Amino acid sequence: MEPRMNLAANDFGGKFAKRFGNASMLVLQSTLPRTTQELVNLRVSQINRCGWCVDVHTKELAALGEPAVRINLTAAWQESTVFTDAEQAALAFAEEGTRLADAPPGVSDDTWQWVRKHYDEDQLAALVADIAMINAANRMGVMLAQKGGSYAAGTYTT
Questions:
Q1: Per its record, what are the GO molecular function terms (predicted)?
Q2: At what angle do helices 85-98 and 109-118 cross, to 10 degrees?
Q3: What is the CATH code of the structural domain delimited by 32-143?
Q4: Among 33, 98, 117, 155, which residue carries the largest CB count within 10 Å?
Q5: Under 8 Å CB-to-CB from 79, ≥6 apart: which residues?
């Protein structure tokens, strides 16, 4: 199945894609560790079943030098020993921030305190933005029927 449309190929979509990309670049340039960003993006993309985004973030993690075991265990991070406490806090925050309707009130106070223990205010702001952006990207990818498999690492990071 081909993608339903190329969002960037029309006037409005192109303007939107440019601004969306600029916001994403701001997160990439933050002090939030890049590996944490990519782990969060991968996990949220797995939850949201966005094949395109799973492809992007597995390949970006590999390009960063992440071992296959960490990439492969991201889906089961809670049952794994390969993630730091800070990464686990970010992954928990990302999951709760993604599954808002599944477990009211959304992000628990315990998870918020856990993530605050590991990240400063700027990093927390970047993490909130990252989770919001990847959820939006996932929704666009799924709505437009974008398929994974053809992404080349580094395409969106420069």
A1: peroxiredoxin activity
A2: 140
A3: 1.20.1290.10
A4: 98
A5: none
